[in-house]
Design brief:
single chain; 74 residues; mainly alpha; 0% strand; elongated
């Protein structure tokens, strides 16, 4: 592991600590960073597919949007 220093505004730190607990902040931040990196990689893959095959049709986008709403609703 490598130790790094980061600066956050007080409200963000307070919210992270409420969720992670004072001693779980590093684990919380590592998890958040990994999730963000995974999303960025997925966006790269989508861009590569669009470049290779063209963007999806309106019908495909609508179907994906409907599936995403169903899967991620809370």
């Amino acid at each position: 592991m490598e130790r790094v220093t980061a600066t956050f505004d007080e409200q963000t730190v307070a919210a992270m600590r409420r969720v992670a607990g004072r001693r779980g902040l590093s684990r919380f931040l590592q998890s958040a960073a990994r999730e963000r990196l995974a999303r960025l990689r997925l966006l790269e893959v989508v861009d590569e597919l669009d470049a290779r095959h063209g963007p999806p049709s309106a019908a495909v986008r609508a179907a994906v949007d409907a599936d995403a709403r169903r899967v991620f609703r809370r």
